[in-house]
Protein 1
Amino acid sequence: MFSYFARHLCATILLTVSVVANNYADELKDFRDGHVYQTIKSGSLNWFSQDLNFRKTANFSDDEGRSFYRNERWELSCPEGTRLPDALDWDKLIHDKFMGPRKVQNMKSFVSGSSMGYYKFEEDDVVNKRDYAAYYAAVGGVGTQVMMLDTKRGVAKLVRIEDADAVQVRCIYDRDLLAEKGVDKKTMLLTDNRDNKQYMVEVRAGKAWMKQNLAFSVTSEKQCYLEDKTYCEKYGRYYTYSEALKVCPVGWHLPDDGEWRDYQKERATLDWEGLGRGGCQDWDNYCDGAATGHYWSSTSILKNSARSWEFRRLVRDIDRTDASVYKGLYVRCVADLEE
């Protein structure tokens, strides 16, 4: 009826895992057996969207080849670099994915391919305690606690089972939030895939900020300080407000007024030399390029104007005003690191 696997495992198992560079970790390859797992994002975590099927640590498999694990083997089962979710991890996933009017459909999608119920060892047989719920390992509790996902009612809750019972496993691992935004964590460089230009990045107020002005699509000297293209390479490009709203790379956006407020709170740590140069384009004139830098926000309060931020390098001061949407100002793109 069932195929059993070795009941006596070595205490140490070599675990090797590789994250496939496909849309920033949409899948993960377990080199222990070559199995590839699709993943889904939830908060700061990547979740396996499929049940773990590493048979060397499974207590048994069912007729369809799905693996089940007693709690004594949970910790041995997930690939290196991943881990088992605890109750808090499950709670975050539930609030992210299984709330609202589509909770039943979303839960059914999550457990698709899983076996309903869990399995009990009874003498020389294994009995499926079948119902409308799928059961998954949840570490960290007292005794053997598992997460029950009731796909009939869309209900999720922790329940306790016997130590000898076996359930399925979903593994998790931390998202590389900077890599998902195209930033190399070692160099802190963002590569804009549209033109392969690179920008230094820093994390401020919990968000990723470009430390250099955007210079995408330099097509005319008129977008540069003093109409000199060398200044576009040095300072970045001027954009009108309508251009600024849509010019940031995918996954990045023009900061709103509130984000600029958070950015500049710790003024002693600002890069005044970088922020306070390049001026602005004011119709046929230019602002002081040696001592000021002017930046768009996405916030617009008055007609034909938008909030702008001026950084004054020499006096280390900031002026926040409403600028004409037709002026040429710089853009610093920002990216959310929690979604």
Note: Residues 4 and 60 are 5 Å apart (CA to CA).
Protein 2
Amino acid sequence: MTTIDEFRKVASRVSNWGRWGDQDQLGTLNLIDEAKIAESASMVRQGRVISLGAAFDAQGPQGRMAPFRTNPIHLMTIDGGDGPTYAEQVRGWGNACAEMIGSVFDIGPMRFNDDYIMMPLQAATQWDALSHVYYDDLLYNGFPASSVTSQGATRCSIDQVSRGVVSRGVLLDVARHRGAATADPDDPITPSELDAVADAHGIEIRGGDVVVVRTGWYGAFNRSPRNYEAHSAGLHWSCAEWLHTHDVAAVAADNPAVEHGGMHVDTVFLPMHCLCLRDMGLMFGEIWDLEALGEDCASDGVYEFQLVAPPLRVTGAVGTPLNPLALK
């Protein structure tokens, strides 16, 4: 067990506070410049598009994993059952909304369906905004925790990432490297293993990259959602320094938290969240579906791609759902 004093020493070493100015709210996404985006476009050679997004439905991993979150609830407001007699049925009923729809249906043959969804913004495939995690009452770059109000985050919110996330993506397929469908959840991924996987894949980690780590967890969950374990393999907290040394722009994984869930630092829950989001300003992507990408990369031996992963611009939000795309 690492002491809190050692944790704070690492926090000081990886801190990016002030690196891009005192008012910066983008953190390591600043490492993705025009040249980096142009480089990422050169990764597209075959014209293949691979979705990395999980399904947003009632069968997701929330509930048991995070009781304060639910799986998405999808409701229809107008559907195909509102057929030929709909206008007649609602006429004079007194429901203004139904009568408005009925009047449209009365005009002619056109019909339409409509729906909405209720969900936590971090229900499935997601980005964590820099305002998601903090400690000592401070967010990234020294903004006060009180800047996240009941009306939303006024600093470091996900809508600050208005330009989206487009960069060179690099897959580190840890599960495949270990020769397992799913990496052992009791064996956290260390910096030396990340180096070994990169070497085995013949891939170089470069500044501004988005590193994507496959543990196999989401594939296992998808195969048997009723029997899944929230506990998963993930990055050891010491990988924060590895990410900092390599000037990585963001990190994503197919597990619930990117990092390993064990208690590795005395009194600090999810220490890598603290170091990356709060100290480095490095966003986390969680619960990405990397099964198809893993198969594709293993097939052609190419573990780099253009990653297009724009967040929804939800004003003041501390996270966002998304459907990231890998272009090869």
Note: The first strand starts at residue 49 and ends at 51.
Protein 3
Amino acid sequence: MPKALSPIHVLLLFCVSGVLCLPNASYAVPSFYRQTGIACHACHTTYPQLSELGRDFKLKGYTLSTGQSKMPPLAMMLQPSFTHTAEGQPGGAGPGFDDNDNFALTQGSVFYAGRLFGPLADKSAALGKFGVFIQSTYDGVEKAWSWDNAEFRFADSASTEKHKFDYGLYLNNSPTMQDLWNTTPVWSFPYSGSGLAPTPDAETLLGGALAQQVAGFGGYLWLDDSVYLDLGGYDSLSARVQSDLGVDPEGEAQIDNPAPYWRLAKELSRGDHRLEIGTFGLSANTFPERDSSAGTDHYLDIGLDFEYQYAKDRHDVTVMFSGLRERQEWDASQELGLAENSTGALWNLAATGSYFFDKTYGATLQYFRIGGDTDTLLYADNRTGSPDSFGWILQLDYMPLNKKGGPKFWPGSNVKFSLQYTRYNKFDGASRNYDGSGRDANDNDTVYVEAWVAF
């Protein structure tokens, strides 16, 4: 049975409703530019990848302002695209689409992002400490609206004789959304992709399986511009609330009691060089497919990450690594006939390098791998019963307006043209030219062309 709406859920819905109804009231959203007067390329190497200044802006709760803009913190985004896969998908790549070579509006979004109280915050120091990032998205493949990334923050700073620190509280709907680096799941590369190409079936709980299904509350501390600590907890929204917000709750794992989340990171700085190394994790008891009749399963997700950045003059270099391992105990799922094994493991890793020249031209290369235990019931949608997938992603970017700030009537507008190629050496356990039966890994190789327009 669905759980009753908790106080956290009520607060979240109240805040969402209030913000979206304010009459004056991601991503690198242009509302941040209009609020601060800081150019997009100062906070991002390429959006949404953060630079040092961008991490500081997020740390301070999206509240930094010049106090000059009278515009509400509103912004919009469109992602028109073209998708080609090595082999077509019989029956169509999506509802109303052809087997292959499809044009689509991957998504369109509306944002309320910046100071929670917009220009009113300039008149009150207290109001100026509350920030918000709310995204509502139209999925051009599913042809439906839903809420997307949503976060509210309170941020402040303090110091003692020997130490200084920034601290804050957050309320959001996806674990790791609050993180400062692009190594944790919500903001990791690839930052966008086709909704009309096959993708690997296996996904860890912390790696995205909870996105927009939960409400989480926590706090963070940034000590001496060096040590970052984040502790929080997440609980599932009721099925009714998710449906009202455009999310389909069918088949999801429902958290039983708040699941603790943690994040610890250390950043080292020298001149134009920045190096971060850290760990993050989540522990959760869940009802499989929201069915509490057989008790709970248990997930323990533990991740390790590092990020290196070099930024000077016309050169931006970023190297990232993230690895996440999930230990699974399928007590309830096995009894319900949803899992073959009583225990299992799933893991993924990604190594990514990017270079951007003159804030305009960029190239990013990623090696990714997903692995784990074979289970013919858990992975019944593929013919191998295996979660194993690995391959490469190469993306080329061109940002002609990045240094110009957009038109005067709506400053901060930007566009990124991307050409993305994904090659699979293994896909859901199937290798390239596997055995000629069914869909092999190489059939899913994808060329994706996109214009990411923010205004």
Note: Confidence is low (pLDDT under 50) at residues 1-26.
